[in-house]
Write a structure and sequence with these properties.
This protein is an alpha/beta fold. The chain has a single domain, classed as 2-Layer Sandwich (Nucleotidyltransferase, domain 5). Helix content is 49%, strand content 15%. The protein is built from 10 helices and 6 strands. It has a 6-stranded mixed sheet, sandwiched between helices. A hairpin with a 2-residue loop joins strand 2 and strand 3. The protein is globular. The two termini are 32 Å apart.
């Protein structure tokens, strides 16, 4: 059967900010599914060890006080999140993450911060994958669609319910369901490919998008603009 009928795991983080190198994990979720149906959700509330900015708390609803009172110590939680993710990858289960370079790069940065093995080290030195990123796929297969490409907007395009935006478990499940919708709608480009081949195509798709977006920014906004072309980890 095609990958989108088989086990998948959705992955999402809610964080203290938008820069993967310096932001910290506040909540995380791994949602195991069979196709687009949830089987099990594993979630974490983390004490990030730094104050949670008010603008971040307003998005995901977790204050510094809540994280300190009820969150797991960051080194323990980060280790568990990475172990769970890599265990599924080692079992051949594709990881679905919307805008994967943000979440995976931030998790890797947290691992380095706490002197823990990186994702690649935990996988015996092999690259992290297969990863399925609905944002990258959607940008490629529907390149000229206007409007936002946020998870909420993309869910609207594909008729996926996002029950609780910016709650990690809800976002992770929605990402899986968007990926399944993309596979069903675009079988030749997405649904019929083995996950490893789709992963490889996304590396190229993201690089092509990054080059085009960077050219537009340099022409229209900022001559020095740089868009990172690396995927799925910066």
């Amino acid at each position: 059967m095609s990958w989108w009928h088989e086990p998948l795991v959705g992955f999402d983080l809610e964080t203290t900010g938008t820069e993967p190198d310096v932001s910290r994990i506040v909540t995380a979720a791994l949602v195991d599914t069979k196709g687009d149906e949830p089987v099990r959700t594993t979630s974490w509330l983390v004490n990030p060890g730094v104050p949670i900015p008010a603008e971040a708390a307003a998005i995901h609803g977790i204050s510094t006080e809540q994280a300190v009172a009820h969150g797991r110590p960051a080194p323990e939680a980060v280790d568990e999140i990475a172990a769970g993710l890599c265990r599924r990858l080692a079992d051949g289960i594709p990881v679905v993450a919307f805008n994967a370079p943000f979440d995976l790069s931030l998790l890797d940065a947290e691992l380095r911060r706490h002197r823990l093995p990186t994702l690649e080290q935990r996988l015996g030195g092999r690259p992290v994958g297969p990863v399925l990123d609905p944002l990258v796929v959607d940008r490629s297969v529907d390149r000229y669609r206007r409007g936002s490409r946020s998870l909420q907007s993309v869910c609207g395009v594909y008729g996926v319910e996002l029950a609780d935006a910016h709650e990690a478990g809800s976002d992770a499940l929605a990402a899986v369901r968007v990926a399944v919708c993309l596979a069903a709608r675009y079988p030749g480009e997405v649904g019929e490919l083995p996950p490893a081949d789709l992963h490889a195509r996304q590396v190229t798709w993201h690089a092509v998008w990054a080059e085009g977006f960077q050219s537009w920014l340099r022409r229209e906004k900022d001559p020095q603009a740089v868009i990172d072309a690396r995927w799925p980890i910066r």
